[in-house]
Amino acid sequence: MTVTSEALTAASTGDDGRRARRSRNRETVIDALLTLHDEGDLAPSAEAIAARAGVSARSVWRYFDDVEDMARAAIARQQERLAPVVQRPIDVGGSRHERVRRAVAHRVDLVAAMGNVGKVARLRAPFNDAVAAELRRVRAELRHLLGAALRPDLAPLPRERAEMTLAAIDVALSYEAIELLRDDHGLDADVLTALLVDVVHAHLAAAEAGSR
């Protein structure tokens, strides 16, 4: 039996089409999952995800090898959504107050952009290696960005004290701290930002006083 070039081309085109549909459906399912998280459903069922994605419930898991595969896909999509905020440059010029306010505003904006997905990540991390690894990576990246933004204020300090001060400020500006201040204490973005600016100034002042 001779296989013609036309048949091979048709088969290849068919395979390409199936892969493209699978890729589109994967993205649609992940977008549906993240949207449900945004809306407050932290543990949506396959049926809820399928309904939002416009696919059958049985087909949801056809697009992913396992739970880890879905988690990695969700992480990648969330990175795309957060990129405009994460990659926003933080100007280190001007006065200390201006630097601190810009650094705090960046972190507050990022936590707001993370929304419920950030909460889900922290709930799932102990049980999902992919989520735990991503959470560690994000925390390290944010700590690095914060250190770069406050470098003019941290650089004059002894190395160990600078590292401890950065760690303390990083915790004060963490997702968990901001979530508590915003949700449990009911602070709006402006009041929250002003409070955290004062907290950062206090840490820097204490570090300088302890280094004299």
Task: Describe the model.
The chain is elongated and about 85 Å long. 23% of the residues are buried. The termini are far apart. The protein contains 9 helices and no strands. The mean pLDDT is 89. The protein is mainly α.
Topology, pairings included?
Layout: H1 5-38, H2 46-53, H3 67-86, H4 96-124, H5 129-149, H6 151-154, H7 159-172, H8 175-184, H9 189-210
Give the helix level as a range of percent.
over 70%
H/E topology pattern? HHHHHHHHH
Largest sheet: none
Q: Which segments are poorly predicted (pLDDT under 50) over 5 or more consecutive residues?
A: none
Percent strand equals under 5%
Radius of gyration: 23 Å
Number of helices: 9
Class per helix and strand makeup: mainly alpha
* Average pLDDT reading: 89
Shape: elongated
Rounded to the nearest angstrom, the distance between the terminal CA atoms is: 88 Å
- Number of DSSP E strands: 0
The gist of it:
By secondary structure, the chain is an all-alpha fold.
Features:
mainly alpha, elongated, 212 residues
